[in-house]
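Hey,
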Amino acid sequence: MFAHFGPDGADHCQGTFADRGECVAEPETVGSEATGPNRAGSASAGQCRPGSPRPKVIVEPDSLAQLDSLPTGSARSERTSLIAYATEVLATRRLVHSYLDGGNATWIKPAVMADRLAAAGVEKMRGFAVGVASFDATDISSTYGQQVATALSGLGVRGARFVIDTSRNGNGAMDENGQHVDSCNPAGRRLGVPSSIGVGGAEYR
């Protein structure tokens, strides 16, 4: 779920919505589409039925990691409060597994990310996500996830689970010259390991 408004701080996009009102409405829409009945009163193909695999929602990729790129303290506080609102809404959707985005292993220090996740309400979520849209290898991402979870425990948020995006990290984040790749769709990347459960400390990967 990528629904913040305003620039993302990295000149990659200008946000999905034009104002705060549209942004606030989006968690309601996502939660309803994932769990609610369709107009005929029965679950649609994309909705969750009891006993079926639960939808997985990654909440606001990069938004917490990019807080330092926002121009003012009030802008950073507003973004955090909007994400916290989304966690409250999605927490009521018990058939959905929602994870706050926690950046990636080579971006924000674990203790800093833990502070941001805690402020945004990660304790209401299933956990947090790492490596979304990045190329860090799974073992590196798993170590980072464990470090963030440990830091969260120190803040009183115990038992936080995490997921790892392995959709593009099969070759890791280093190019043939030993340089870390940061650009979108750099050459030489490939799929990572197939999705699995309970491997390397992560709930899924």
